[in-house]
Request: fold
Amino acid sequence: MTRLDTTAPSLAERLAPALGDRLITPENPQLGTLAATVFAGGDRTPALIARPRTAAETAEVVRAAAESGIPFAVRSGGHGYHLRSSVAGGLVLDTRLLDTVDLDAAARIGRAGGGVTAGVYTAAAGAAGLATGFGDTGSVGVAGLTLGGGIGHLSRRDGLTVDNLLAAELVLADGSVVRASADEHDDLFWAVRGGGGNFGVVTSFEFRLRPVGTVVGGFIAFEASPATLAAVVDAGRNAPDTLSIMVNAMKAPPAPFLPADVHGRPIVAALVCFSGDPDDADAVLAPIRAAGTAIADLVRAQSYPELFAGPEVQGLRATTRTGFRDELDLEWAATALEAVAAAPTPAAVVNVRVMGGAIARIGADATAFAHRDRALMATIVGMQPDPAGPDGRDWVAGTADRLGIAGASYVNFIGDDPDGAVAAYPAATLQRLAEVKRRYDPGNLFRSNHNIVPAGD
Reply:
């Protein structure tokens, strides 16, 4: 018998009194469904899934995991490209029942449990004409997104998600519960703003809320052209901070709003969000619309939460490579479109997010997200829904080499790379994170992530 064979049953006996039917064992038919993550890869089915509702229950699960030595992972939305929010044969602490949202509109503070999704929080805040800037997908967990940095529709106007984080309640590796803020455990507060899930389980967040009324946003698709790709990115860089944009060189999906003759072929697509005065939107968007021949323009005035609406997709195999750039020229744009055309997967994307604005007005050492001075974030993604189809791994690696995507990268978009943490942070930032890790998780319990090793190990 392996150690795991003997550990899992005894761990189940310990946790059952606290969790009852919220401890999911192999006999429970829900185990496979609850273990599923958005991106698939290998068999990562756990032996147990613990679903706490409170910080106290979370602490009990953490203590039990630490004492048992069983392989251990923490999951919220399950969107991690790294595939480490589940662990084969181990224990998964599933935070999705920590799902409360509490808004103080007068004080402009939003509180969210560690299992809340961006869409749920955004809808609640939007009802009061307020928002905290998260990413661009409603089903993404607030926890994972925030802990890595959080770039999305409001980032150029309001900063990253971590720039709007006021406090976090965490369960540490020893089972203690602490509050991290500018005034309490300030070293931990610095680290969780970009350092990922290395330091504890966040059971609740406090965010700054900002006014957001009607926005003008949506999807514009253009005929594929290097000049168009470069011009759209350039227009986004020169736009006011109230416009956030991401631009894709991508294979056109079989969407009804796109002409059938472009399905599966390269296009240039922009997702925009203008959060200024709606009367100014046409003028701000004019340089983007003038960048090429549009084949679909779905941009419209809408409530901010509507931008987060979309279907939940699971089971895709995804390979990624991500990094930063300061320029995007015609040669780079042509290479990106050529690579997309040659991709072996049906969903292939070279994604470019325009940074700058409020992101760049915060010091590089203010948070663990340190890439404040970079103009663009580029991510290559190959996705495959067919379990028997090519996974795109070689294509992503080759495209990254051709496009010069290497070095510093954004931790939330790194795939299953064993050296992901080394790539994600400048050396000084990584060393500082390692010191915080040594203070709060010296035994490296929280290691099913892009792991930061405690200083001295």
